[in-house]
Amino acid sequence: MTVLKTPLIAVFPCFCAGLIMGHLFPSEFYLAPTIAVGAFALWASYKSKGFVTDLLILLLCVLIGAQRMSANFQNMEDKTNSTSFIEEKLSGISERLESRLHAAGLRGDEMSLTSALVLGKREGLNSELKTKFRQVGASHLLALSGMHLGVIYGLLCVICIRWVRFSPFRWIALPLLICGLWTYTLLTGMPASLIRASSMLSLVCLGILLFRTPPLLHTLTLSATLMLFANPSLLTDIGFQLSFLAVLFIALAYSPFHSLFHSWPIMVRWPARMLLLSLSAQIGTLPLSAYYFHTLPLSGPIISLILIPITTALIYGGLFTLILPIPLFASFTTLCVQAELWVLDFWMNLFPHSLWDNLHPSPLSVMLIYIAMLAGFTRLYKMSSDIKKTHQSVE
Q1: How many Å apart are CA 113 and CA 124, to the nearest integer?
Q2: How far apart are CA 170 and CA 183, in angstroms?
C-alpha cells in the first residue's frame, strides 16, 4: 500500500505530531478532514503506490492524532465509577501484599525499599534515602521501569518458556506469561513505564509464538503508538517520555553494537555490555532529566554496574518473600537492601560531587540537542545494519 521502507517508524512521529497539534489546538472539526483524507488515501493506494500515497498516509496519521487528542480532552472529565472501583480493589490487593512483606519480618528501610522496588509503593521512602539515590544518579532504580519488569520476565521465561519454546505447549505457557506481566502491571498501579514494557514484552511473546524476532525499534514504536492512541495524555507524562527515550537510545546505540563484545572473555564481556546499555539509556534521558529535574548525574552509568545486580537480587528476594513469607527469604532481601545502602554511602563518600545541579536548559535547546543526537545515532544504526547485511551476504 505504500513504498515507505519503514512505515511504522514513519507513522509514529506523524501520529505524535498530530497529538501535539490536538493538544495545542483542540477542536471537534478534525473528524471531517480525517475521514476525507482517509478516503482519498485509500483511493490513491489503488491507483498508484508512489510518493503522493505516502504523503496522504502520513497526513492521515497526523489528523488521526489530532482527532484522538481532541476527543481525549472532551472525555477527560467522564470518569466512570467502575474505574474507581477497580482502583480501590487493586489498592487493597497491593496493601495486602505489602502486609505479607511486613509479616515476613521486613522493617524500616528494608521494608520501604523492597516495597518500592517490587510493588511500586514509594510513599514509605524517606527523603534521606531518595536523596542518596538522586545524588549518585540512580533515581531511576526507585521508579518501576522496564528493568524491573525485565527481571520478572527473565524469571518467568526460565519457568515458562525455556522448556516449551519449540513445542505446542508454548500456546499455553506464553499467554499465561503475558497475563502474568499485565497482572503485575495492574497491581503496581499501571505506571507508564511498566505499560510500555508490558506492551513490548507482550509483542516479543507473540513473536516467539510465531517464531519471529521483531526488531527492538519496531516493537518500541508499535507499543508506544498503541499506548498513545489508548491514552493520548501519556504524551505529556514524564515517566512515559523518559522510558520511551531510554529504550529508543538502547535500540539505536546498544542493540547494533553489543555483538562487538561477543569474542571477549565473559568476565569482561558482561560488564562491557552492561556499561554500554547503561550509557545508552543515560545518554537518551540526560537532556530531558536536566530539563525536568535540573540535575545531571555524572557517575550514573558507572554506579549502575554495581547497583543493578544488587537490585535484581533484591527484586527476586522480595518476590519470593511475597510468594512465601518466611524468614529465610526475608533475611536474603534484608541483606540485599543493606548491601545497596552500603554501596550508596560508600559512593557518596568517594565521589561527593558526582551530581551536576542547578541546570535550567530551555525547551528549544533540549529539542535541538535531541535532533542532533537522533541524527547521529540513527546514522550509526544504519551503518551497523549495512555492515551486518554485508557480512550475511558474504557468508
Answers
A1: 8
A2: 19
Asked which of 92-106, 196-210, 256-270 is least confident by mean pLDDT, the reply is 256-270
Helix/strand/coil (H/E/C) assignment for every residue in 151-181: HHHHHHHHHHHCCCCCCCCHHHHHHHHHHHH
- From the list 33, 14, 5, the residue with the least C-alpha distance to 228 is 14
Mean pLDDT over 245-250 rounds to 89
Burial class of residue 119, CB neighbours in 10 A (0-12, 13-18, 19+): buried
- Dihedrals phi, psi of 28, to nearest 5 degrees: -90, 5
Integer angstrom CA distances of residue 291 from 101, 129, 359:
37, 23, 7
CA distance 53 to 45: 6
Q: How many CB atoms lie within 10 A of CB 8?
A: 16
Rounded Cα distance, 232 and 226, in Å: 10
Checking if the pLDDT of 79 tops 50, the result is: yes
Q: How confident is the model at residue 327 (pLDDT cuts 50, 70, 90)?
A: confident
Q: How close are the terminal C-alpha atoms of the chain, in Å? A: 33
Please check the confidence at residue 332 and state whether its pLDDT lies above 90: yes
Whole-number pLDDT of residue 157: 74
| 3 state DSSP class of 93 | helix
Give the separation between CA 332 and CA 324, rounded to whole angstroms.
Answer: 13
C-beta of residue 221 within 8 angstroms of C-beta of residue 8: yes
Cβ(16)–Cβ(63) below 8 Å: no
Give backbone dihedrals phi and psi of 204, rounded to 5 degrees, phi first: -65, -40
pLDDT tier for residue 365 given thresholds of 50, 70 and 90: very high
Q: What b-and-e string marks burial along 334-357, b requiring 16 or more CB atoms within 10 Å of the CB?
A: bebbebbbebbeebbeebeebbee
Q: Which residue has cell 490513491?
A: 44
pTM of the model: 0.83
Residue pointed to by grid coordinates 527476586: 316
Q: What is the pLDDT of residues 21-40, one digit of tens each?
A: 988 888 888 888 888 988 88
Residue type, 326: I
